[in-house]
Structure formats: structure tokens, C-alpha cells
Design a protein that fits this description.
With 116 residues, the chain is α+β, with helices and mostly antiparallel strands. Helices cover 41% and strands 20% of the residues. α2 packs antiparallel against α3.
Length: 116
């Protein structure tokens, strides 16, 4: 069986296959993949085999809305970097800038093609 790729959100190698019985007679088995670190689950409809669940997990495509999120984060970073900072607000500014840059780094770590 193909190895599970790391989680797209937290980047950890904590993915595992989950099963559940369903249907009127509860004899049908559904498979999906979950992350034990951030609890993300990927279930694109019932997967009848472990192999199909792994394939769906490993071939996820990035949400197209991420481009707009990245654009907004970059804009926020730019505004923060250009802001005039008083001594009283420097700590808050540095914290906000760190969070914004950290968020962008996380997105790029998991979706390298988003840098384009």
C-alpha cells in the first residue's frame, strides 16, 4: 500500500486510516484518513478500500481560495512593515508581524506552489 503523505495543515507525519461501519445493515465499511496531531479528516465520500482512502488523501488539491488568503496576508505584512511604530506599540507590532509571517510560512510549507 502507498505511504500516507504528511498532513496538509500541520505538516506532521501523523496520518492514520479510520474505518466505520455504515448502511442499514451496518455491514459496509467506509475508510478515510485523519491526522492525529491537528485532527484534520479527509473523507470525500465513502471509500470502499484503504487504498482508495490513501489515494484521496495523497492527491488532495489546494483550496483555490488560498490565493486570496495569501494575498491578504502579504498585504497585512506589508502594511505592518510600513507602519510607524511608537515605543509603546513595538511589542504588539512585532507579535502581529510574527503571526502574519508565521501563517504565511505555514501555508508555503504545505503548499509550496502557493508561492507562485
Amino acid at each position: 500500500m502507498t505511504k500516507l503523505l504528511p498532513c496538509p495543515f500541520c505538516g506532521e507525519d501523523c496520518a492514520y486510516i479510520t474505518t466505520s461501519k455504515y448502511g442499514v445493515d451496518r455491514k459496509r465499511t467506509m475508510f478515510w484518513v485523519s491526522c492525529d496531531n491537528c485532527y484534520l479528516s479527509y473523507n470525500n465520500g465513502p471509500c470502499g478500500t484503504k487504498e482508495l482512502a490513501v489515494e484521496k488523501w495523497n492527491t488532495r488539491t489546494p483550496d483555490p481560495r488560498l490565493k486570496e488568503v495569501i494575498k491578504d496576508i502579504k498585504h497585512s505584512i506589508s502594511r505592518m512593515e510600513k507602519a510607524k511604530i511608537s515605543a509603546n506599540n513595538k511589542t504588539a507590532y512585532m507579535a502581529m508581524l510574527g503571526v502574519a509571517k508565521g501563517t504565511l510560512d505555514i501555508i508555503y510549507k504545505h503548499i509550496p506552489e502557493a508561492k507562485k
